[in-house]
Amino acid sequence: MKAKKFFAAAAGAAMAFTLAACSGGGAGSTEEPTDGSTAGGGEVSEGGLVGVAMPTQTSERWIADGEAVESGLTELGYEVELQFANDDIPTQSQQIDQMITNGVEALIIAAIDGTALAPQLEAAAAADIPVISYDRLIRDSENVDFYVTFDNYNVGVQQATSLLVGLGVLNADGSEGDAEGPFNIELFAGSLDDNNAHFFYAGAMDTLEPYMEDGTLTVPSNQTDIEQTNILRWQQETAQKRMEDLLTSTYTGGDTELHGVLSPYDGLSRGIITALQNAGYGPSIADGLPVVSGQDAEIASVKLIADGVQFSTIFKDTRKLAAEAVTATDAYLSGGEPTANDTETYDNGVKVVPSFLLESDIIYTDNIQELLVDSGYWTAEEVESGVAE
To answer: For residue 143, what is the DSSP state?
Structure first.
C-alpha cells in the first residue's frame, strides 16, 4: 500500500525533528475501499501495544495516515491495533473501548466527532494510557495529552489565497494581481463536529473578508456563516447537492455568473465540480469552469489540477504528521514527554492541549512536479492516471 513508502520517506525527517477534507462518484472520482477495519495480531512486542483509531476508509488520505502510523510504530518495535470506523461514531467508540480492553499502552485517535469520546478518554486516563489526538482535536476533555496537526488556521488562509490567485486578484507570490472584479463566489466549510473545520473557515474568511468589504468579491447566495456552508462528515455527495441547490436558487434564469468556490477538501471539490459541469460550466477552467480550491492533495484531484479542472489544493504532507505521532507516542512510552511547538492555540474547551504543528503548501498546476512528484508523495504515473498505485 502506498502509505508504506510514505513512512519510509518520512522516517528520516522525524528523526531529524527529534521531536523538536470523502467518498462518492463524480469528477475525478476513483474506486475506494469501504470495508471495515484491520488489526495487528500476534503477541505484543517488547515495545508494547498501541491503538490507532482512524475515522474512515472511504478517503485515501485516512488509509494512508493509518498505515503510515502503523508502519512507523512497527519499525520502532511496537505492536499496533489499527482500526477504521467508516465514519460511524458508535463504531469508533466501540473500537477504542476494545483497544483499552486489549491492553494498549497508548492511543492515537483521529476522531470522527471530536466531542463524542468522553467515556473512552476517562477509561484511558484511569488506565494511565496517554492519548494523542491526531489531526482533529478531541474536545471537551482533560484527558487529551498531546495533539499533532498542521497549522489549520493557515491552511484556511492558503485555501482562500489560492482562490484569490485563481481569480487573478492575487499573484502566486502574494502580490496584488491585475483583476479587479467584482467576482461572484460561494463558500463551503467542513463538518461542524470537526474542530479543524472551524480553523480552516476562520483563516479563509479572515483572508476573504477585506475583498468582500471593498466589493471585489460578492457572495450572491448571501450564505457566509459556517452554519450555512458546512458539509456534515465532509461528504462529497452532500457538497454536490448543496452546489446544485445554489446554482438552482441563485444562478438560474438571470445574468449572475459564478466565478469561484471556496472548498476546504478535495472530496468536496470533486462534488462541487461535478455539479458545475452538469450545469453547463466548463469542462475546464479555460472553458469557463469556476475556480475551485481544495485540500489534501488527493490523487484524483491532483490529476484534475494537472488537467486544468480543479484550480488548487493544499498539500499537508501526512508522512510528516504520521512521523510526529509516532515520535510523540515513543516519547511517552519511553518514560518522557513529547516536545510541543505550540502551547497556546488549541483550547479544547477544558484545557489547552500541547501541540506540534506542521506547515502546508499550496499546490497549483506548475508545482505538482516539485512538491508532489519530486518529494515521492505521488509518482508521475499516478498524477497522469489519477489513481494511487
So the answer is: -
